[in-house]
Amino acid sequence: MISTSIRPTAPSLKSNCRSLLSRCQALAPVARPSLPCGVHLRVRSFRTRTRYSARCVLKPPVDNSTEQQGNHQLFGETSLPQFLQQAEAAGFANPFLGLTPSDYTDFRNQQPNPDHMPSVSYILDFYGGKWQQACRAADISCDKLTNAVQQGRMLRFLNEQSAGGLTMKMYVQVSQASRRYCQQSLPSLQELRREFGSWQEACRSVGFEPVERDFFLQALKSANEWNLRNGRDSLTVTNYRQIWQNQAKFDYADASYEYVLKFFGTWQIACQEAGISPGTAGNNRHKRENSVKDADRRTYTDEELLEMYQQGSTMQVIGDKIGVTREMARCRLNNVSTAEERRLLKKLIKKQKDIDRHVQVYRETGDVHRVAKVLCVSKSGVLKRLHQAGTDFDEDPNRQSIRHHLSQCKVKNENGKSSADMFKDSETIECLQMAAAHYDTDTLSVTMYRRFSKGRNMEDGRRFPSSSVIKLSHERTWSTACQAAGLKCGGDGRRWQKPRRFNEACITASVKEFLCWAEKTPTVPVPSRGAYTLWRDQMMQDDPSMVGALPTISTIQAFCRSRRSHGLPSNWISFVCELYESMDTECSMHVE
Which of 17, 311, 404, 433 is deepest in the core (most CB within 10 A)? Predict the structure, then answer.
């Protein structure tokens, strides 16, 4: 077993935390009576023990000048400070905040006759609402303490209660427990660091040295001894984590790897401080890398560093060669070149890698379409990169196929920009008329034209203009283009327009037409809402011009609800029955 002689008088972590939580008089009254572990958290137990050891039962002061009114008693300027002094002498004052109004109230409630003592509200009224002025009248220290003074007193008290073995992790556990179970909690570790700068400075400012250093060093030594007894010649980070997790063999729960690293900075420095040679505590992989670095290390000039960076070497590789970290390598490169040069160089390296990747995939597949599919880029982008790397294909047998693909690209104009196919207004009108003749209709929608023009070419070899090109050439609207071609605009081309608002006449006419259709259709026994939706879809499918001309069932229901304010039927069934009565033909159908 590992020797645990670092804190021979201090108890274990669990019992230490219990003792701290039970004695912590800095906390306010408990909101919950017990901890999850079953330890009753009596925050004021230490204070209560002090009271019963030197309890002072007060007798009501005799003052002939006061006059009693009911159960309350008026007190003068000479008698009020006496009660505050008696409360402080009885041990009710908070060691961190002084005698607070809540402490005085607790002291008053402990007396046999609380009505014979002035209340907090009476004292505040007498001294103009200022508790500090009342304390000064009683010669009690009531100066407003800063956060540093309060937190320093808390640290000193906790260190005394833990027998001088207060660690950072123990304080974190006590602070978290106080926030969960107490009304007035201890400051967190972040607040402590914000006030003092660090945990070590906070401990030194209140008069005791932090135990982390010796504690962590002893933990590292014990772990190294346990590691050597198990046949391992080096204490690596992985080995230390495994030892630390095994609480039965390693009794240093506070000395985790994260806390060790946070205290010392690096693992190598921690091992050196513990008296463990870097060769024993270091990782074998790091030793091999260090030996390679020492063998290849030499002085590199700035030009050589730039050349290595231009060849694609990362900061880690450059740092390994010159024997520094990657951050130091980045700083050195920053001093050599400007930010604009590094940006352009990085862009050039990225572009060259992109070209090499396209060339490699093309060599493997031999097809531009497959390259575009594999790399998720456009065909023109693949051809552009292959054209930029054309010098690499002088002896390649696929060079002829590349030239063939490049010849199929768009012809460049004099300015070097790719030019799209241009269409005259007469040509776009002719394309629209051809699409309408194909469907044998005078109504043409965008969807119908897209289906017709897909994969079709004009007589001169050009592809049919897209619907977007036609819109651009005709005031950017499909309806204007159809009107120029002598056609009617389809339903899906009217999406940009405002939704049509149906009046009562349109809704009534549509429902009457539906009822006439339902009478002639034997498969529709009841004119329900679903039957109306089926009839509307069938009408729009048979006649595309009816798209948007018939109200939906939701529109009809909204219209029926609007009739409620006028005392008219406000649902579908009542509306259908009303229309049946107004129709000349009689209907014997059962209306749902």
Answer: 17
